[in-house]
Amino acid sequence: MQKQEAMSAFLKAVFNWTMENTTDYGSDPPPIDQDKMQWLRTAWESFVVDGATLLRRALTMLEKGSEEDQVLVLNHLTELVEDIDNANVLKHLRGWAIIFNLAENSPSVDVRQAAIRSLTAVLHNNERGIRDGLDEGLIQVLERLLTNASTADTHKQLIGLLSTLTQSPLFVLEYVKLCSQNSSNLIAVCKQLDPSSPRLAHLLNTLKERMALEPPSEYKTLILEWLAEES
Fold first, then answer.
1. What is the CA radius of gyration of the chain?
2. I need a labelling partner for 229 at 20 to 30 A (CA). Which of 41, 43, 140, 208 fits?
3. Count of helix runs (H) and strand runs (E) in the chain
4. Whether residue 42 sits in one domain with residue 84
């Protein structure tokens, strides 16, 4: 985010310097239209914005927009949070609850699917994002999503989310701790959703390769047990 702000300041400085120092107008320079200059500066400043500002605007639109708008915004948000710096301001902006609510309660299948994809993007290879999600109730939301997944509408997106979460030691250990009375094998849950899923096949291969290199840990023990149960 600091890099984006620095770049914004740099680009505005370049803009101002260029406008003030360009003299190659042929003969006499034309008079400067101050109103046009102000309009250009305002337009430039609205164009060059940081990730947190974009996220704040996106979250506002998610709360107030139509279902069509929500899908569009969620798709853009998914791209935006691929930058971990952007993903990690979601908690500060109170964005978790907004996305959780859409993933669980939107009457639109398209919105629910897009919201789950956004969650997956926030959490992917992002242990701080995992920690923030846990603080905001991620496990409880996941349990409700799985309980309510009575149709195939969101199975593909849920497998993507579970695949990301299964590769996080922090999430797996917390999940097993809270779900000790139930079947907590996330690989088995993926298989129940869609045993022929390409994403599931990729997850299995990834975990097998990773466990061959992973040092001994409680996480490794759990994953090896899960893999053995599903072999």
1. 23
2. 140
3. 14, 0
4. no
